[in-house]
Amino acid sequence: MPRIAVCLFLLLLISAVRLNAQQWEVGAQLGASGYQGDLNQRNVLQVSGIAAGVSLRYNFNSHLSLKASYIRAQIEGADSTSAYQQQRDRNLSFFTPLNEVALVGEFNFFEYLPGDGIHKFTPFIYGGIAAVNYKPQAIYQGQTYDLAPLMTEGQIKPYKSTVLSIPIGAGIKYNPWRSLGITFDIGYRTAMTDYLDDVSGYYAPQSAYSTRTAYDLSDRSVNKIGGPGTQRGDLRNFDTYMVYSIGITYTILNSKCFYR
């Protein structure tokens, strides 16, 4: 999936250069990522990893834009750090690399015209659709394991590694000088899966697992208190992840009039 994302971005970039119109912006972002799900049910703003990405934006006018982006991020969680004894007793942990390709529409509240020296600041909101590839992993007895193939809740087959995601968010754009732009945004994503953290439903009996390692990773609770059929996850349908980023954009300017 990362290769597809890079190819898509390069194709869009080539198109933008050929058009040589100031409606196009290329950019790069760096920031932090977070997660809310079965191992973090309450803290919406918790940061657990880093995020970086590239983007290409087409400005239809001073208020409306369409942005294609690729983001690489990581989320993680550990029951051992929870304030709640029940979660500490469950004792699960994970880290998950994420690769996201998104297409979002943006709305600028103020007129935003990079390069004109006047309309250089605006808050904005966005929403769209994305595909996210995820790979939950855990460290157990000094080794790192991919969790999906182990089917830690007794599934018949591993869950899908790429799903749809719904990104929404808000931010600020600022154009300090000619083609240069700076953005800050906070984005919230609902992934169409409950397995970003490899935790969703119930503990399965030991007979459901093909290996001892799979069973051990399914139930890391203190004194193996997670009996078959008892609740393992929070039973909600979807996990979510967040991206907080600061970006730099470059607008392809020409001698034509500014778009309106």
Description:
With 260 residues, the chain is mostly beta strands. The chain is built from 3 helices and 10 strands. An 8-stranded antiparallel barrel has the order 1-2-3-4-5-8-9-10. A hairpin with a 2-residue loop joins strand 6 and strand 7. The two termini are 36 Å apart.
Summarize the structure.
The chain has three helices and ten strands; from the N terminus they run αβββαββββββαβ.
Approximately what portion of the residues adopt beta-strand conformation?
over 45%
Helical fraction equals 10-25%
Radius of gyration: 22 Å
State the end-to-end CA separation: 36 Å
The number of helical runs is: 3
Q: Write down the oligomeric state.
A: single chain
Strand order of the largest sheet: 1-2-3-4-5-8-9-10
Shape: elongated
Task: Give the arrangement of secondary structure elements.
Blueprint: H1 2-19, E1 24-36, E2 47-59, E3 64-78, H2 85-90, E4 93-108, E5 121-134, E6 137-140, E7 143-146, E8 162-177, E9 180-191, H3 212-218, E10 240-251
Antiparallel strand pairs: 1-2, 1-10, 2-3, 3-4, 4-5, 5-8, 6-7, 8-9, 9-10
